[in-house]
Inverse folding.
């Protein structure tokens, strides 16, 4: 990697597996359907191109200076090559995607290494994917740390042979939902490999912000006792001090969240980055479709962590480029993400512009 490409931050857009992040874009529904490569390839490519053009139009209307540097999504199995080719031609190359793995497997899922082999093959078919973000199922007790270390060591060997870099995401219902567990696995991995390999973290800090003041999630007793510190404005908090300042973060997802006391299944891990009343599609709804007026001030903890994260990256030009993708998801039904009728795609486009403005502000401050 050239010196010019190190220490930088790229901002892209992520689409989840069900497609709720980009729903509503032209062509999006069509590209998710299988097609006949002999007779329908041009139509498929046209639909993919239309989707990217619509994204570009929305972003230009929000901030003409902003750019979508990449797309993060699992390419459709039936059209991975064609999707990646058009994405690159449209200037939003497919660079990475996210998948969930289960160490040891279970009744519904294969073993993590078996699943990873398939993901690496999909990346090879796409031709432009060089990172895969893994969500590793688990909690603060399971799988055992030794099993997690075994997995990460074996997964690294597989991925390096394929020319793909693996990241591990902070996420609810994964062992990384407790930052202390993440750090324990990182330390054990360094010890096992003689310092050669630690975790490369994909930081989705909405999964930490939503735990602040929330008694409904597993870490509450540690948070309330002070054993786990999650206040971004406390310089001694576990995320800032050990994960960000420790240089563990290689990228992540940009989904805004606020401290709250909502239980699982009630939208605890997502909050709009901009007022839904600024979206023409929801402008006429009371509060833009929210149950209460949107309040920018509630996002202060989330903003603070990402300000710290971006600043750390920009202060260390020796680091590989960090990629962050906007990821507002959810279908308005029961779940941890969007419950209200605001549009995810509008929030995702706004997030790209806001993140790039924050980067420019930090760069200007560092240049003084």
């Amino acid at each position: 990697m050239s010196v010019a490409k190190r220490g930088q931050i790229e901002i892209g857009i992520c689409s989840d597996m069900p497609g709720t992040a980009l729903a509503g874009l032209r062509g999006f529904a069509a590209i998710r359907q299988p097609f006949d490569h002999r007779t329908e390839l041009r139509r498929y490519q046209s639909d993919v191109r239309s989707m990217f053009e619509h994204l570009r139009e929305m972003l230009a209307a929000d901030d003409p200076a902003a750019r979508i540097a990449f797309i993060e999504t699992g390419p459709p199995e039936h059209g991975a090559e064609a999707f990646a080719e058009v994405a690159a031609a449209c200037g939003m190359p497919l660079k990475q995607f996210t998948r969930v793995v289960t160490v040891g497997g279970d009744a519904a899922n294969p073993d993590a290494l078996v699943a990873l082999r398939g993901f690496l093959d999909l990346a090879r078919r796409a031709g432009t994917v060089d990172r895969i973000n893994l969500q590793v199922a688990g909690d603060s007790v399971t799988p055992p740390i030794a099993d997690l270390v075994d997995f990460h060591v074996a997964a690294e060997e597989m991925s390096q042979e394929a020319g793909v870099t693996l990241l591990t995401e902070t996420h609810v219902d994964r062992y990384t939902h407790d930052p202390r567990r993440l750090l324990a696995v990182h330390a054990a991995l360094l010890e096992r490999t003689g310092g050669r390999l630690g975790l490369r973290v994909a930081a989705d800090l909405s999964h930490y912000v939503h735990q602040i003041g929330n008694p409904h999630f597993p870490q509450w007793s540690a948070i309330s006792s002070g054993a786990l510190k999650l206040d971004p404005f406390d310089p001694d908090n576990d995320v800032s001090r050990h994960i960000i300042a420790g240089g563990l973060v290689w990228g992540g997802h940009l989904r805004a969240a606020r401290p709250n006391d909502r239980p699982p299944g009630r939208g605890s891990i997502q909050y709009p980055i901009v007022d839904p009343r600024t979206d023409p599609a929801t402008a006429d709804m009371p509060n833009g479709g929210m149950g209460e007026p949107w309040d920018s001030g509630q996002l202060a903890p989330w903003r603070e962590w990402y300000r710290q994260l971006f600043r750390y990256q920009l202060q260390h030009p020796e680091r590989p480029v960090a990629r962050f993708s906007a990821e507002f998801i959810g279908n308005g039904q029961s779940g941890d993400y969007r419950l209200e009728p605001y549009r995810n795609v509008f929030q995702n486009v706004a997030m790209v512009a806001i993140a790039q403005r924050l980067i420019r502000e930090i760069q200007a401050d560092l240049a003084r």
The chain has a mean pLDDT of 95. The first helix runs from residue 28 to 31. Residues 52 and 90 are 7 Å apart (CA to CA).
